[in-house]
Design a protein that fits this description.
alpha/beta, Rossmann fold, 10 strands, 37% helix, binds adenosine-5'-triphosphate
Length: 236
């Protein structure tokens, strides 16, 4: 399995933000991670990417346990965090070269890879600008470019299109679709059309628990819209 989560729990004080969830993603699957605000999506993603320790349970990425073998697990992952932290004073190319060095890349191979991700993410015309000068959509592209840099086998994208205009949403979706070929992708979103456009499967969580894990085809076969399935499962 590319991602395996087993009985994962994370408590903050007395609150169980993630409450015994289990799910897995096979290689090459693109899975939408849905849930209302505060359901535990970001917390789960932060555990998978090694930014938070679970309170109990296991998580592994590309067969590497995220607690026991954090470095190989992290190397297998490209992560776009929810608030896309970027160094605003850096130029786009400079930032990507810097990020590549953090992944242990260097020299001509790094330069060539940075040019590749700039092309993949449609950043050619912006690559000489400072990140502070970029629109929100282009900053998001820089965050995505950074997450793809080391050619990870798994992408974990936390609300990659939040706050973007409809054109940029469409463009970012295309970037995810093309970069996600041959990769396993877990992404969170509140946009149902996004799920319909990108996913094979949808995992819905509510109050820290998985309340649905189904393929899009299985959900379509119910005859209900994804929106109404979501509302029914998460309004409790
Ligand atoms: N560092 C923290 N300390 C205390 N509570 C936290 C912390 N981080 C998250 N929480 C709480 O854990 C719960 C789950 O939060 P999380 O950010 O994982 O939800 P989410 O599903 O990603 O929500 P959203 O869709 O709003 O981004 C929330 O109630 C949140 O307030």
């Amino acid at each position: 399995m590319s991602i395996q989560v087993t009985n994962l729990t994370k408590t903050y004080g007395s609150q169980r933000a993630v409450d015994g969830i289990s799910f897995s993603l096979k290689k090459g699957e693109i899975v939408g991670f849905l849930g209302p605000n505060g359901a535990g999506k970001s917390t789960t993603m932060k555990i998978l990417t090694g930014y938070l320790k679970p309170s109990s349970g296991q998580a592994s990425v590309s067969e590497h346990d995220v607690v026991q073998s954090p470095m190989p697990a992290r190397r297998a992952i490209g992560y776009l965090p929810e608030h896309n932290p970027l160094y605003l004073d850096m130029f786009v190319t400079e930032f990507l070269l810097f990020s590549g060095k953090l992944y242990g890349m260097s020299g001509k191979a790094l330069q060539a890879r940075v040019e590749d991700v700039i092309t993949m993410c449609g950043l050619e015309a912006e690559k000489r600008k400072k990140i502070a000068q970029l629109s929100k959509g282009y900053r998001q592209r820089v965050g995505l470019a950074q997450s793809f840099l080391h050619d990870p086998s798994v992408l974990i994208l936390d609300e990659p299109t939040t706050g973007l205009d409809p054109n940029q949403i469409q463009e970012i979706r295309e970037v995810i679709r093309s970069a996600g070929q041959n990769k396993t992708v877990l992404f969170s979103t509140h946009i149902m059309q996004e799920v319909e456009a990108l996913c094979d499967r949808v995992i819905i969580i509510n109050k820290g628990k998985v309340v649905s894990d189904s393929t899009l085809n299985q959900l379509r076969a119910t005859g209900e819209s994804l929106e109404s399935i979501f509302r029914n499962l998460t309004s409790l």
